[in-house]
Amino acid sequence: MTIHGWKTKFNEIRKEFGYSEKEDLISAKKLNLLLKRKNSKKEFENIIKDKTVFIIGAGPSLSKSLKHIKKSKNIIKIVADGAVRALLEENIKPDILVTDLDGDLESIKKIGKTQTPIIVHAHGDNSEKLEIVKNISNVMGTTQTKKFGKLENFGGFTDGDRCVFLAEYFNANKIVLIGMDFGQKIGKYSKHKVTNRKIKIKKLKFGKMIIEWFATKSKAELYSTKRMKGYKTIRLIDLESIENF
Description:
By secondary structure, this protein is α/β, with parallel strands linked by helices. The protein has eight helices and nine strands. A nine-stranded parallel β-sheet has the order 6-5-4-3-2-1-7-8-9, with helices on both faces. The relative contact order is 0.19.
């Protein structure tokens, strides 16, 4: 079940950023038509339920985290958009990719040729990119409108916090944030091209607010490599032994 109160929270975000629900719906309808089938949620439940899950974002600290992620072979890795390029460069296989297609499309296409589940999110600004789903072998669509057709709405605003909401929805045991920095510096893997730095920083600010709000609702054990309200801070070296915590 999507976290109670999220709909109200997202309406506040929509108002703050001036997002058009009509445009979101147009994009969502296009994605719904493009999808060949509705993916079973059972696959995601099998991957996530009762597991320790790394949520891997594309913040500046990601680069230093990669060697520790690589050593954590048995941990489920849910990857936010552009961070997947960093993992591919280190031959690390993501278990789930969550993207609104703002990241490196070539990396997304590469993952799309495998059976790795990819969650593609439709919103008013990415309608023209959605055709990519035709070339993805295992894709589920999500929307920030009310769910309909083949589309789900697990909650979340940015790719990173959508990963977190996904892990909660499918009852992860431990949720560990990596590369989720939410600072003034934009990581090199964060977006293929940042056209408006001011808006990007504002989104990061809201992303942190959502992640901390989420902590007040979550049933999982929460950890973060960066200091965050509601999360236990974990050292990078300790990622390799997180299951023993």
